[in-house]
Each structure stands twice: as structure tokens, then as C-alpha cells.
Write a structure and sequence with these properties.
single chain; 505 residues; alpha/beta; Methane Monooxygenase Hydroxylase, Chain G, domain 1; four-stranded antiparallel β-sheet; 19% strand; globular
């Protein structure tokens, strides 16, 4: 098997991975990504923006209070304080890397309000294409750094170990499928989320939780696996991924109605459409369970400004909807995973030399329910902290090739084939089970049934099917985490919790 030795290996080229790479001067960085420029990354699909307390009358303390409230008591207060205190420096750093945020006519940053924020503190870049704009800016910046190398078409399939430390990854070079051993002094997972484990999701096709599955197989501590956020307003069109209808539209005045025109959120929460995401998503789910079709009425917003929200307009036009004159049909969809690889405040995991940042990591800032527009912020703030922690160090020996062991959850013969193929029947069934039993509303009986069916799906999966095996193992761990939390908490809503109704409308 071919072997390459690298210094720092970053798996993933979304906002978190690029930030970490740009923030580690003195180290040679190798970035693995499917293609160049990186396209199939969740960061690029983020429409709403990035939160920071830059407005008059706002402060990091107020931002932190909103973050903690949305997180339903499950946040790490220390991580939240860091996130909010370092938000403004992160914005200035992004501008220094070439990002350009939208500004008002008098030159100030244009600020928007989104759900559960007490102030307008969300910055946009390119209107409702903030994630794409920031990702493109950081990619351009990274291409100019001689110590950052991109390895397109190289797909990581398993972490490798040397004793107690992670020593890189086992990868496949595509399209040939040639196995490659990348031995690294430090390995950073920045592989994004897992929305594609669900039947309906706003996540790109590559967001299947594979990085988290690799960490789980290697024995890394993983936290908060039961906390999955469902975005309330995805376009009801049947596409995969489901187009996102940004929350910023509701912040600008769009309202949710059923087919009879009733604005149902008014009786559910004092903030109506701007209630926390889990509350809005659950109420839309309840309405659909009663047979109602739900719409976002954005006619007043989009009709008033022909240039506003171009991404939303384009998605609607593609599906024959003129959102200036028609209501937009919406449904909830799996959107963001608050759980992930357990890390400390600089991204260090429980395994030596393994780091993580972005959605694959669990820093504790999001708790049980992520506050809108804190995800891009977390990627930058904690990506920068991780990069700074990767201080230059001397070469650490890993021993010969035979002592570097691939971690796939099973004995893996070096000469055996490794398959990225995912059995279609099992894959469809896995996504259905996740949606039906580990979705917006859960119960003990449903979780037990889903867990048992996942275990049954694992039967017959061979050791060489590393992708399918890893995804099934991750799904089983998520069900186990959900079963262990008997009470409702944020996005983890148990219909069989007697206090659920009182705590979460």
C-alpha cells in the first residue's frame, strides 16, 4: 500500500477546515477534499449569515444569553463565552482574508435579526449566500499560502492509530480507488454534519456523518449525539437536498400560515415565527400530522425589494413558485447536528493527536438547540483556536508502516478491497428509520424499535464495506444516546416525557 507522510492533515475543506488551515502558521497543512474548488460542503449552503454583537446596544454578554437560552440548558457556558467574546475579532479576521460583508448606504455593516436573537446581530455576505461567499474567500486565501496543499479526489475512509495516538488516515484515491496511507503528525476532522442519514435534509449529499463515524470507530469520545436540529422551513418540493428557505426571511417579516391562512405560531410562543427552531419545527410537524399544509408567506418582504434573498427566489422559481405573489410551501428537514466528536476549547479530542472543528465537533456551544447563525461563527472561532493550538513541533516518529493500524471497527487485511459502495436497500431503510424514529418527535417505544432495526440492518454487512458499516454504527450510537435521555431537552423531544409540554410548547 502506498504511503505519504504529512505534517498536519485536515480532512474537509468547508469553513472550519479552511479556517484551521489558515490559522496554523509554521505547520505544513494537507487538506483532503473531494474536488476543487470545494463545492459539496454544508458551509457553502448556509444562507442566513454569521452572528456577532457588532450593533449599537449589543454585547457579547447579550449574545451569550441568547445562545444559552436557545441551548435549553445543555450548553457549555465556557465555550459560549468564548464564542461570543471572539465573534467580533472573527469578523475582522474574515475581512482580512478577503471576505466582504453587506453594508448599509452609510457604510456600516447591515445587521439582520433571526429567531431567538434579542437583537439584530446577523451579518450577511452576498445577501442570502453568506456561507458560499465566506467559503470562497477562505479558499482563495488558502490557495495563496505555500504551506497549504490541497489533495482533491482523496477520500478518507478510516482513522489510523499508532499506539494511543491517531496517526493519520487510510484513504482512497479516486476515481481509481487506489488505497493510500496518509501518516500525519496531527489529524484534524472538519468533515461537517450527518443530515443525509435522514430522509429529508437541507445538507449536501456528502453530509453522511462519515468523519464522526471514523472517530467513533477509533474510540474517540462523542457527545450529544441525540441532538439533531430540524430547520423549520425547507422548500416542500421533494428534492434531495431539500432547498433551504432561510430563517432571515422570518426575521424580515415573513409569517407561517396553514392552508386556511391561519398564522398558527401566534398561539404557540410569544416570539411566534421567531421562536427557537425546535419549537417552530415541532409545531409545523404537528400541523402536518393533522393534515395541514404549511406555507411561508413572504410576499410582503420579497415584493418590496426585487433584489432581496436571491437564493430563495431562485429555488422557488426552479420549482415554479413566484414568491413575490405566492406563498412558499415549507416542511421541516434535518439541518444541523449539535453532537459530535467531544473536544476541549481548542478542538483537542480524547484521542492523542486527533482534533476536530465545525459541525463534526461537539464544543458545547450549541447545547440541545443551535441558535441561528452561530454555526458559521463556531466554525471560524474554534477553527482559529484549533489552528493556533497546532504550534510548530519537532518531527514525532510513528514507527514503521506495519505498526500503523487502520481503525475500521474490524480487522482490515492490508491487501483486501475497501468499498465505498452503500447497499441501496439498507441505505434507504436507514434514512427512513432515522426520520421516523429519531426525528422531530420521539418516544421510548419508537427509539427501541428503531435501535433494534438498525442492529438488524448491520447483520451481513462485511468488513470491507467501511462506509455503510460506519454509518450504521453511528446511527446505532445516536439511538442509544437518545434512549439514555428520558426527558425532553431542546431538539430532543420525547412525546412520552410528562413534562415535555410544560417545558417546550
Amino acid at each position: 500500500m502506498h504511503r505519504d507522510d504529512v505534517d498536519v492533515l485536515v480532512v474537509g475543506a468547508g469553513l472550519a477546515g479552511l479556517t484551521a488551515a489558515l490559522s496554523a502558521p509554521g505547520r505544513r497543512i494537507t487538506v483532503l477534499c473531494p474536488e476543487l474548488p470545494p463545492a459539496e460542503v454544508a458551509s457553502a449552503l448556509a444562507q442566513g449569515g454569521i452572528a456577532a454583537a457588532v450593533g449599537e446596544g449589543d454585547s457579547p454578554a447579550l449574545h451569550a444569553a441568547d445562545t444559552l437560552a436557545a441551548g435549553a440548558g445543555a450548553c457549555s457556558a465556557a465555550a459560549v463565552d468564548i464564542l461570543c467574546a471572539e465573534a467580533v475579532p472573527a469578523i475582522h479576521w474574515l475581512e482580512g482574508q478577503g471576505a466582504s460583508f453587506d453594508r448599509t448606504a452609510d457604510g456600516r455593516w447591515a445587521l439582520h435579526r433571526e429567531a431567538a436573537h434579542g437583537r439584530a446581530r446577523v451579518l450577511h455576505a452576498g445577501g442570502d449566500a453568506t456561507g458560499a461567499a465566506l467559503s470562497a474567500a477562505l479558499y482563495r486565501a488558502a490557495r495563496k499560502v505555500p504551506t497549504i496543499e490541497f489533495r482533491p479526489g482523496c477520500v478518507a475512509v478510516a482513522l489510523e492509530r499508532h499506539g494511543a495516538a491517531v496517526a493519520g488516515v487510510l484513504a482512497l484515491e479516486m476515481p481509481s480507488g487506489r488505497p493510500l496511507r496518509l501518516v500525519a503528525r496531527d489529524t484534524v476532522l472538519a468533515t461537517g454534519g450527518l443530515g443525509q442519514l435522514y430522509l429529508h435534509t437541507t445538507n449536501p449529499l456528502t453530509a453522511c456523518g462519515d468523519g464522526l463515524a471514523m472517530a467513533l470507530a477509533a474510540g474517540a469520545r462523542c457527545d450529544g449525539l441525540e441532538f439533531v436540529q430540524f430547520h423549520p422551513t425547507a422548500l416542500a418540493c421533494g428534492d434531495n437536498p431539500t432547498p433551504l428557505i432561510t430563517e432571515a426571511l422570518r426575521g424580515a417579516g415573513a409569517v407561517l400560515v396553514n392552508a386556511q391562512g391561519e398564522r398558527f405560531m401566534l398561539t404557540v410562543h410569544p416570539d411566534a415565527e421567531l421562536a427557537p427552531r425546535d419549537v417552530v419545527a415541532r409545531e409545523i410537524w404537528r400541523q402536518t400530522q393533522r393534515g395541514h399544509r404549511i406555507y411561508l408567506d413572504a410576499r410582503a418582504v420579497l415584493g418590496a425589494d426585487a433584489s432581496a434573498f436571491p437564493s430563495v427566489r431562485a429555488a422557488c422559481v426552479k420549482h415554479g413558485i413566484d414568491a413575490r405573489h405566492e406563498r412558499i410551501p415549507v416542511v421541516p428537514a434535518a439541518h444541523y447536528h449539535m453532537g459530535g466528536v467531544g473536544v476541549d476549547l481548542v478542538g483537542r479530542s480524547s484521542l492523542e493527536r486527533l482534533w476536530a472543528c465545525g459541525e463534526v465537533a461537539h464544543t458545547g456551544v450549541h447545547g440541545a438547540n443551535r441558535l441561528a447563525s452561530n454555526s458559521l461563527l463556531e466554525a471560524v472561532v474554534f477553527g482559529r483556536r484549533l489552528g493556533a493550538a497546532l504550534a510548530p513541533s519537532g518531527r514525532q516518529p510513528h514507527g514503521d508502516e506495519s505498526s500503523v493500524v487502520p481503525v475500521t471497527g474490524d480487522a482490515q487485511d492490508e491487501g483486501s478491497a475497501i468499498s465505498l459502495a452503500v447497499d441501496g436497500r439498507r441505505w434507504v431503510e436507514l434514512r427512513r428509520l432515522m426520520w421516523e424514529h429519531l426525528g422531530i418527535a420521539r418516544s421510548g417505544a419508537g427509539l427501541e424499535s428503531g435501535h433494534a432495526q438498525i442492529v438488524a440492518l448491520e447483520t451481513g454487512v462485511t468488513a470491507d464495506q467501511v462506509r455503510l458499516r460506519g454509518r450504521l454504527r453511528l446511527a446505532r450510537a445516536m439511538f442509544a444516546s437518545a434512549l439514555a435521555r428520558h426527558e425532553s431537552c431542546g431538539a430532543h423531544y420525547r412525546t412520552d416525557d410528562p413534562g415535555a409540554g410544560a417545558r417546550s410548547p
